[in-house]
Amino acid sequence: MFGKRIRLFKLLGFEVGIDWSWIIIAILIAWSLSTGLFPFYYKNLSTQMYWIMGIVGAVGLFISIVIHELCHSLMARRYGVHMKGITLFIFGGVAQMEEDPPSLRAEFATAIVGPLSSIAIALIFYGIYLSGKQGGLPEPVNGVVGYLAMINGILAGFNILPAFPLDGGRVLRSILWGVKKNLRWATRVSSWIGSGFGILLIVLGVLNVLRGNFIGGMWWFLIGMFLNGAAKSPYQQLITRRALEGEPVRRFMKTDPVTVPALQEDEKAAI
Known about the structure:
2 domains, four-stranded mixed β-sheet, 8 helices
């Protein structure tokens, strides 16, 4: 999924890093906030102030995503699941698990805590925003706070969609797991739904491009491509892991490898 990963820091025992794609998206977010969103809603501020607001907004989004993924990681660790770390990339962030959840309870709790954390962050920022409007908080500060409330609400809403491997898709997998007591079946069905959702986004992206909304359409298209591919990967990994689980290494070793005869002394001298 990722290219070159840049390690940033450790947080509560989890290594936090970013993919190179996140740098690109962070610059685009700061640019769009500084030249589009904030100038539209908050008039007569300086260009420098708009850029400060845009950069702070992008940093706030980064922190929000890290908290979202950290909550996943802490809950997974509580259930004994080993985590590789947290990586931010072009479409958000991911808490990387080294193994499948041990139970449907662990899957449900680990998945649902992410959207709940984003909702909590959104409500906190929204409360600060309302207080700031009444208490005279500087307009640029309140503008960034309002943006962070909105973007965390959007983050929670998008992630709760029942499209695997989004958090909502993992919640769905835990429910299906509980219904049939079969993780493989639950993963297969969730993957199909996630893949279908990705295809739907691809179609919507193409339609938007044809209607003239090139940038928005391309984003829908790229997110759909990502979801479609990411939805299939966990099921394939699960099948492979279950197929190899418990098998001795010798089963996959070649007992009669092709060898090259050792060089004689005169041959070594010639070399």
